[in-house]
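> call design_seq(struct)
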């Protein structure tokens, strides 16, 4: 074979190889570009810092935005697109504290918009049971009917809302599946000292209302009509019989009665959500903060180290002995930083020594339950609600 025909066949092979390479990446041009050796895969450190951290300077925080545009760093060869596989790989939840009433956990690898979605769903969309209708048969106390009803509405009810249905709009069909009935009948008899009425005096009526509806009093029916129509006792529902229903806290003051005063009423609780009224919100608060990061930009030693330690009100800095009678400040508990900025307040020299930052995709989430559901269950319910919303959007678009 002549040298020119050899050259031709070589160039054909190279062309074929390039074509194969392109075909291999035909589903992802970006993947192909990223596979080239000359393309860097990491951002330079200063851009990496701005992308992943909020810088909390003395005057104002900087770089608070999250860069979601997929082509933001394309010119630098870095793929910034939102990918499910990346999310699956990086997303983590670490529980730091769990009690009956509250939970603190870290959500790592998540966008602020999603963290905020969970917070908002927790406050206003996870349902609970709360007292909605109050039938007052007698109230001779000083507290007005509407004020008393409002106080009753705010009592957290210990009942799993997942076992109940939402009431119909008219609220006429009240049965064992959508209504919980409580009765309160207290009297301070003449000659007795003043008495305090507390939430423990609310008695659950598993068989439904006992008050006769006014329009039914005159009916000739053998069984007088009440305000509910239960077909069975709520105690016969296994999940309820194992966890009897009642106020979560038994010492909430409802009213004070003087001698000769009396309250007799029935309170009906139904399922609802916090965006209708705060009484249905399952959390006293749900909040998050980004993970603090405190970085010493230079060694802070001896008297300055002691001064820095004294400045921090939460005792975040420790002092270590580095020999020859010298001491150096170290960051011991960065998670405790409240961002009070005391450590950088005394002038530019301190700002040059210490950098206060927040990690943009690491959230310290705290949920305080009002008591209807355990805090960890509240979060899983919020996840289910967000999932349902996403499915609805997908269904609408498909
Ligand atoms: S900002 Fe406040 S809490 Fe945080 S390290 Fe500085 S002094 Fe301590």
């Amino acid at each position: 074979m002549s040298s020119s025909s050899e050259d031709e066949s070589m160039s054909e092979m190279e062309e074929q190889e390039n074509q194969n390479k392109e075909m291999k990446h035909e589903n992802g041009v970006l993947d192909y570009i990223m596979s080239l050796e000359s393309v860097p895969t990491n951002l330079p450190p200063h851009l990496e810092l701005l992308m992943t951290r909020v810088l909390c300077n003395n005057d104002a925080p900087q770089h608070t935005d999250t860069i979601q545009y997929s082509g933001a760093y394309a010119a630098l060869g870095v793929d910034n697109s939102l990918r499910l596989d990346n999310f699956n790989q990086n997303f983590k939840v670490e529980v730091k504290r769990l009690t009956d009433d509250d939970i603190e956990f870290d959500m790592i690898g998540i966008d602020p918009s999603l963290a905020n979605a969970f917070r908002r769903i927790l406050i206003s969309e996870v349902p609970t049971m709360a007292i909605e209708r109050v039938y007052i048969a007698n109230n001779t106390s000083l507290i007005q009917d509407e004020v008393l009803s409002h106080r009753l509405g705010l009592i957290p009810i210990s009942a799993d809302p997942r076992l109940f249905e939402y009431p119909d709009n008219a609220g006429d069909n009240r049965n064992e599946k959508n209504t919980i009935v409580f009765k309160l009948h207290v009297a301070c008899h003449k000659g007795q000292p003043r008495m305090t009425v507390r939430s423990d005096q609310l008695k659950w009526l598993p068989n439904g209302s006992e008050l006769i509806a006014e329009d039914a009093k005159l009916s000739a029916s053998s069984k007088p009509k009440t305000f509910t129509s239960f077909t069975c006792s709520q105690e016969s529902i296994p999940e309820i019989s194992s966890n009897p229903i009642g106020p979560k806290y038994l010492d909430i003051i409802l009213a004070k009665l003087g001698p000769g005063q009396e309250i007799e009423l029935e309170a009906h609780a139904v399922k609802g959500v916090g965006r209708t009224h705060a009484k249905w919100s399952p959390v006293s608060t749900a909040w998050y903060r980004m993970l603090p990061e405190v970085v010493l930009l230079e060694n802070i030693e001896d008297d300055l180290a002691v001064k820095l330690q004294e400045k921090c009100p939460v005792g975040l800095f420790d002092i270590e002995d580095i020999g020859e009678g010298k001491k150096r400040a170290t960051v011991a508990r960065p998670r405790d930083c409240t961002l009070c900025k005391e450590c950088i307040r005394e002038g530019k020299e301190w700002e040059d020594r210490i950098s206060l930052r927040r990690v943009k995709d690491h959230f310290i989430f705290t949920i305080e339950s009002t008591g209807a559901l355990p805090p960890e269950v509240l979060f899983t319910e919020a996840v289910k609600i967000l999932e349902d919303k996403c499915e609805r959007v997908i269904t609408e678009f498909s």
